[in-house]
Specification:
Length: 802
């Protein structure tokens, strides 16, 4: 197993400065603003209405999140909350309240190094932070400003390595952060926390005593802490627990270190609002804390704790100091508080408050096994010399959103357990939901999940199936509560029958019960959602070979396909768009037959026929294969332009636009291994080639992915906000399609543009935005869709097997 700093991954020096800084204040042209004027007014009223009721709008366009150029690999498994980390070591961007991000850098959350020579004299002591002493005067007895020039960072999610070189005493420290994100391992992947292993290398010809101290403040006003020690199966862990209430949910932070013959662990508590001298002076004096001081429960108005691990390192050798941090928040409620949910990890560790200690012990006893499993999973990719280095970073690091997407993973309750069929994966694997984005607070936004789901189906397929069962159940549900549709100002209801909702709910309401929290459009008229459900059903079947799943989805697949049939108003086999943005490009309107929705329709017809055939539903098979034959002809006749498919059959200038995502449906069929000729193979190749030539190569020198819309004269389609955007996740998807079609170079160039722009030019690592503009701006940081990078991995796998 490899624990060494890997050669690949995202590497950055602490004193790096990114060449470009972007913001979220894109100002569209006057014409666009004019067209959106009434929507803007209504959106403003909606936001006001939210503020009056002290609620946060699901998408806040006034208080946007400023991109920070600071993030590294977040800490934590899947669905138990996450703690973001800066690449320079900051503890920041907390997602502990389910689905809610709190952006705060906690000064008291640090590591401190103390080095003592053979005379017991402290020769070096510093906070391992390059930041200045906090400006409010807190913790001012600590020495800050660790020199940035001798520190560097390597991110390879779910692990990271931080290297600190300290020339004054000729030692090197490497902190390896490990979160248990392990494909197919549903138990460990749900663990709410992670491990830090500090490797201390002493290059001197004399022994040194080195102490690493982990300091941590509780969540906001935590007031009570307690020491703990657990000694089982030859592993002894000692540390501190901090008791918190987050809203009304109990959350216990526990952090500690492994104590061995060689490593002594001691703890203390301190006031994070004070000078910090209690911590600093004891460490300076003896490299450890006085044990007696904190064995009892302590009360402060605010509290922080410190755990010190001290070891003797003989000349020219190295040693590991192993720390764990976890947050035990077994029972959660969303803002409406209608229901209490148990987090999924309680299946294995229980929901008792005292479970923290065994959990810390579990982490420090098993992290080597975690690393081995991570290694086995990643090695074939990392070791593949035919793959470019940037790709190895992109494919693993973009996965951060699986855990850090406001993700929750909960158990179903006893009633549901009784009701659900024995084939329902939610019985064993629970419910899974992740946000559309850190800023777009809607769970499992389905039109986007369509792209992102490749990561789940390949790595945790049961979670993907769980999402599918959840959406299946919504098809026949209606919610007649009142909805003001902001796009056109019409009144409607929240969820209509026989269609797929936009999302599974807002964590500031009651997700799973109150679905469809997206207020902008009338969702039952969206043309892509139903088709995307049908396509995922078949895609998931081909990946899992689970026929029961197909049987369970089939009635709803038929219902949805019949709903869609009504959108073919002229009986030519093709569905038509409604002349408003009735699909995932929710500010880019399509009129008549569109390449995007039309292509999804062809693909959905194709897989419906296939599923009908597998299930021997002969009538359905016949019905939809007839429609498919008709639809194919119409699609080609109406949209084929000799070198690409027109955007739509509308009469506006942008109807001739070259849409980067025009073959989305065909891409999905490829990913399902379907080789039937739905569109002439030659046309597919030509279209992709045109997209590459126009949307990729003519946009920013081919170095920034694929712009959504490009006019045939090579000018960016600026007719709408979104036609001039590059969607990071769509570019990854197109790259995957290019690779499926044997255009590997072109695919890699497309994806590389996204990766290089996001990680190395604009510094948006671990907050990959939904959209990049040509200049200066981005939109919606921390977004779901870029998880589609995993479809490239799937395309490469297929290429290898062919
Ligand atoms: C390390 O610390 C221990 C305990 O404080 C002490 O006994 C020992 O002499 C120290 N060793 C060195 C090399 O300073
Ligand atoms: C270092 O301190 C320990 C106790 O903390 C003591 O036992 C040891 O003798 C000291 N060593 C020296 C060289 O002072
Ligand atoms: C960084 O390391 C180099 C040796 O590699 C050393 O000369 C320099 O002084 C160090 N910088 C700081 C600020 O410690
Ligand atoms: C922390 O200190 C600040 C002043 O620096 C003070 O305003 C604040 O009330 C203190 N908080 C607590 C919990 O003591
Ligand atoms: C650890 O503790 C033991 C027993 O208290 C002591 O003998 C030893 O010197 C300590 N080691 C360090 C490195 O502090
Ligand atoms: C340290 O160890 C390495 C090999 O492990 C050896 O080459 C080197 O000479 C040693 N240095 C000192 C100062 O002992
Ligand atoms: C890694 O690559 C080397 C040669 O390139 C090969 O010998 C080795 O078996 C590979 N390891 C794995 C785990 O694929
Ligand atoms: C379980 O099914 C019964 C009967 O269909 C229904 O009344 C009840 O609401 C269901 N409970 C849940 C939790 O779905
Ligand atoms: C459907 O067709 C298959 C062969 O194509 C046949 O074996 C089967 O009996 C048919 N099922 C029904 C219900 O007609
Ligand atoms: C393709 O689009 C171009 C640009 O709008 C147009 O001039 C041309 O007539 C179209 N070709 C076909 C075959 O429709």
């Amino acid at each position: 197993m490899s624990t060494k700093v890997p050669n690949c991954g995202w590497k950055v020096k602490f004193n790096h400065s990114f060449p470009e800084k972007r913001n979220q204040f894109f100002i569209p042209s006057f014409k666009i603003l004019f067209n959106l004027f009434t929507l803007l007014i209504r959106y403003t009223l909606y936001m006001l209405w939210c503020y009056i009721r002290k609620k946060k709008p699901v998408m806040d366009y006034i208080k946007v999140v400023e991109p920070k150029q600071m993030y590294g690999v977040p800490l934590g498994g899947i669905g138990g909350g996450t703690i973001g980390r800066g690449f320079k070591g900051e503890f920041c961007r907390f997602q502990l309240k389910p689905g809610i991000y709190e952006y705060e850098i906690i000064d008291a959350d640090q590591f401190i190094v103390t080095v003592q020579n053979t005379e017991n004299v402290t020769v070096y002591q510093n906070v391992l932070s390059t930041n200045n002493s906090p400006c409010n005067g807190h913790l001012n007895s600590w020495k800050w400003n660790f020199p940035a020039e001798n520190s560097s960072y390597t991110a390879l999610y779910p692990r990271s390595w931080t290297e600190y070189f300290i020339p004054q005493c000729n030692i090197k420290l490497i902190c390896r952060q490990i979160s248990p994100i392990i494909p197919g391992n549903y138990k460990d992947s749900s663990f709410p926390g992670g491990v830090f292993v500090w490797t201390v290398m002493n290059f001197n010809s004399e022994s040194l005593n080195v102490t690493i101290t982990f300091t941590l403040k509780g969540y906001k006003k935590a007031s009570r802490c307690e020491q703990f020690e657990i000694d089982q199966n030859k592993v002894k862990v000692a540390g501190m627990k901090i008791y918190n209430n987050i809203r009304s949910m109990k959350c216990t932070f526990a952090f500690g270190a492994k104590e061995t013959i060689d490593v002594n662990v001691s703890e203390t508590s301190f006031n994070p609002n004070g000078s910090g001298a209690v911590v600093w002076d004891q460490l300076y004096e003896k490299g450890s804390f006085n044990k007696q001081q904190c064995s009892t429960v302590q009360y402060f108005s605010e509290i922080a704790c410190a755990v010190a691990a001290k070891t003797l390192i003989t000349k020219n050798s190295s040693k590991d100091l192993e720390f764990v941090l976890m947050w035990h928040m077994p029972l959660i409620q969303f803002l409406n508080g209608q229901k209490t949910h148990e987090r999924y990890y309680t299946t294995f560790f229980g929901n008792d408050n005292n479970a923290v200690e065994p959990m810390c012990h579990y982490a420090l006893s098993n992290y080597q096994k975690w690393e081995e499993e991570i290694d086995n999973w990643q090695k074939p990719t990392l070791n593949d010399s035919s793959l470019p280095e940037w790709y190895k970073s992109a494919v693993f690091n973009e996965l951060y959103f699986i855990s850090d997407g406001g993700t929750i993973w909960i158990k179903i309750d006893d009633d549901e357990y009784k009701n659900f069929s024995s084939t329902d994966p939610r019985k064993k694997y629970g419910r899974f939901a992740y946000l559309e984005g850190h800023e777009y607070r809607m769970y499992n936004t389905y039109d986007v999940h369509f792209y992102a789901s490749f990561a789940l189906i390949d790595l945790w397929p049961q979670l993907q199936l769980s999402i599918q069962y959840e959406f299946r159940d919504t098809v026949t549900r209606a919610d007649n509560s009142f909805r003001w549709i902001l796009y056109n100002g019409y009144f409607g209801c929240r969820k209509e029958l026989n269609c797929i909702p936009h999302d599974i709910g807002d964590p500031e309401e009651e997700p799973f019960l109150k679905i469809n929290s997206y207020p902008v459009h009338k969702i039952s008229d969206w043309k892509d959602l139903n088709l995307k459900f049908v396509l995922q059903c078949y895609r998931d079947f081909t990946y899992t070979n689970n026929k029961m799943y197909l049987i369970d989805m089939w009635p709803q697949v038929k219902l949805l396909m019949n709903t869609c049939l009504a959108w073919d108003t002229d009986n030519d086999g093709m569905i038509e768009n409604s002349g408003f943005p009735d699909q995932t490009y929710d500010a880019w309107k399509m009129t008549g037959i569109s390449a995007y929705c039309g292509g999804l329709w062809l693909a959905a017809l194709c897989v419906t026929v296939k599923m009908a055939s597998i299930l021997q539903d002969n009538d359905t098979e016949k019905k939809f294969s007839d429609i498919l034959e008709n639809a194919k002809v119409t699609f080609n006749r109406k949209l084929w332009n000799g070198s690409y498919y027109d955007f739509d059959t509308g009469r506006e200038i942008n109807s001739k636009s070259i849409m980067a995502d025009q073959l989305c449906g065909i891409w999905y069929l490829q990913a399902c291994g379907i080789t039937d000729e739905i569109l002439p193979q030659e046309n597919i190749k030509k279209s992709l080639y045109t997209v590459f030539e126009y949307n990729v190569k003519r946009f920013k020198n081919g170095e920034s992915g694929a712009v959504n819309g490009m006019l045939p004269n090579g000018v960016i389609d600026k007719s709408s906000i979104q036609s001039q955007e590059v969607w990071t996740g769509v570019s990854y998807a197109i790259a995957s399609h290019l690779i499926f079609q044997g255009m590997k170079e072109e695919g890699f160039q497309t994806a590389e543009g996204i990766y290089e722009t996001v990680y190395n030019k604009i510094g948006s690592s671990f907050e990959t935005p939904e959209a990049l503009y040509e200049k200066n701006c981005i939109r919606s940081v921390g977004y779901m869709r870029p998880l589609s990078v995993w479809s490239i991995q799937i395309a490469l796998k297929k290429l290898k097997n062919d």
